[in-house]
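Bit of a strange request maybe. I'm writing a small parser for C-alpha cell strings and I need a real example to test against, not something I typed by hand. Could someone generate the C-alpha cells for this chain?
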Amino acid sequence: MYLKGNQINLFLCTSTGGASKWESFAYSQNNSMRYSNTTNKVSSKDHGLHPDSEVTGSEWSMGGEYLFNNSTAQKVLKMAKSGKPYTMAFAEISQADYASGLKSVTDISANTAWTPGSAFVQYGDAIVTSADIAAQDGNTATIALELTGSGALLDTSAGLTNYYTE
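Reply from user aminoacidic:
Good idea to test on real output. This should exercise your parser:
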C-alpha cells in the first residue's frame, strides 16, 4: 500500500501526571524526515581505481509546517528556547484515526489529536533547531519547525523519555 502525505504526521510525546501520550501538531500542512550517512573512503592497493566506502556516522532530522495556532506556536517556541531534546515520532497516522477524519485540525493539547499507527513509525529524541513564523498580509500565518536528531533514530519508542510537559 502506498501512503499519501496526508497519512503521515509528526508527533510529540507529552506527559501529564506521569502518563505519556503522542500528540500531533495542529493544522499540519507538510511533514518531512531526512536520514543520511557520512562515509569515508577505504582504499588500498587491492581496491584498484575503485575504493570502497564505509559508514562512519549518521544524522537525521524531522520537520513540518503548520497553519498558525496560538497553542502550537507557544509549544514550538517553548521547545526551541529550552534547547532540550524531546521525544518525537515521524509516523503513519493510525488507520482508525485516519478513517474518522479531521482530527489533524485539533489543537495539539486536545485528546482528539492524531495518534501514530504501527505500519510505519520512526522514533527519536530531537532538538528544535529552527522555528519560523511567517505572517504575510492577507495570508494565513504559518509556523515551520525543524528538529535535529539527538541520538539514534529507532523503530521503537522504548527507552525514550524526553517528554514535553507544560
